[in-house]
Amino acid sequence: MNRARNVDDKRVMSLRLPRLYATELLATIGANLMVAGIFFFTQAYFRWGSHQNLLLATAEGVVYVVGALSADRVARYVGRRGLLIGLNIGLVLLPLLAAWRPWPPVVAAVVVAYTLLHAAQWPALESLVSSGAAAGQLSRRISVYNLVWSGGGATTIALIGTVLASFSSRVFFLIPSAGHCLAILLLLNLPDEAAPDVADHVSPEPELVKVRTLAMRLSRVALPATMAAIYSVGALMPTLNVIRRSQPELRTLLASVWMIARFFTFMLLGATVWWHTRPRLLLLATLILPLSFLGITLVPSLVPMIACQIVLGLGLGLIYAASLYFGMVLSSGSTEHGGYHEALIGLGVVLGPGSGVVAQLIAPGSPSAGIGAIALVLFVSVLASAAMAGRRKTSS
């Protein structure tokens, strides 16, 4: 009887997981156009500088926290699939509004509303992919999950320059709208979730629980800093001289090097488990963030800037993978923990660009002031991670 049930469960998951990963890919294409890549659009069409882009990124961060934390509560009433279908309906309509009236106030309002809905879908997707999996299975699923969104994101950002140079402004917004239409079709045909096999879920040793808990806490202390770096780099990159000197079609490709490095970092982490029991590697990854950020934004030549992007991608990949994996394995794939993970992402989006905006208000016309303020936020994260690791070592 159990053998027959296991065969049926495997068949269900063989149909269910590819649909979830495909939905995730469509979500990341839309998100990288409408949330992360929008700064190239605003620079190209509205001639926005770093101040306006950082202000928009800060607004994105505020609503991102709200959307992420609301996902679990709504999912309890309508289910995770119902939540995703409802969100994708809204995500279809919002870009159409921007395509109809691509004016600065309309685009900014659409981007903020889109970010709110987009933030709520990730906890549900992460939970659906993770639930019902033992620790070994979960590591593989999270690895594939990370490769899908990071690979799709890197490709999308790299191609934005070509889209902006080759098509009208309206096409930019029609692409995510079409993707979310396909996502709705996938979700409507999503097989029911298989029941978890209780035999697979053996309680881990107490020492392993302690290591996992430390790794989760360290990664989640550092996670806001990763997003502060990502969204600050995203908002500032179109305005950097080293990027503006390049051909328009190449600008987003050059700006996506850190995303490509992050993708290969996820690939390495997914193929190995050695990092599961070495949580203090996260301290090194956290230290990488401010150093590589300063290199990207201040180095005036292309090759060192690309090298700094590669280093940034390595640090970002390790911290993000640790936060998601350890949060899911300790909570058995709950939407609530996915919401915490995503809310910390939103917090980082607020702290990074927000500190840049405040610094530029204090010192108008000084991009270096904004860069310095963002770097300070990243260094504070280094100190917080070091303090937590030291406290845990003392209490052991």
What is the β-strand count? Answer: 0
How many discrete domains?
1
Structural class: mainly alpha
N-to-C CA distance: 45 Å
Can you name the CATH architecture?
Up-down Bundle
Which percent range fits the helix content? over 70%
Shape: globular
Structure description:
This protein has 396 residues and is an all-alpha fold. 85% of the residues lie in helices and 0% in strands. Helix 3 packs across helix 6, helix 5 (135-166) packs antiparallel against helix 10 (257-271) and helix 7 packs antiparallel against helix 12 (302-331). The longest helix has 51 residues, at 50-100. The protein is globular, with a radius of gyration of 21 Å.
Which SSEs are present, and which pair or pack?
Blueprint: H1 2-36, H2 38-45, H3 50-100, H4 104-130, H5 135-166, H6 169-188, H7 206-236, H8 241-244, H9 248-255, H10 257-271, H11 281-298, H12 302-331, H13 335-362, H14 367-395
Helix pairs in contact: 1-4, 1-5, 1-6, 3-4, 3-6, 3-7, 3-13, 4-13, 5-9, 5-10, 5-12, 7-11, 7-12, 7-13, 7-14, 10-12, 11-12, 11-14, 13-14
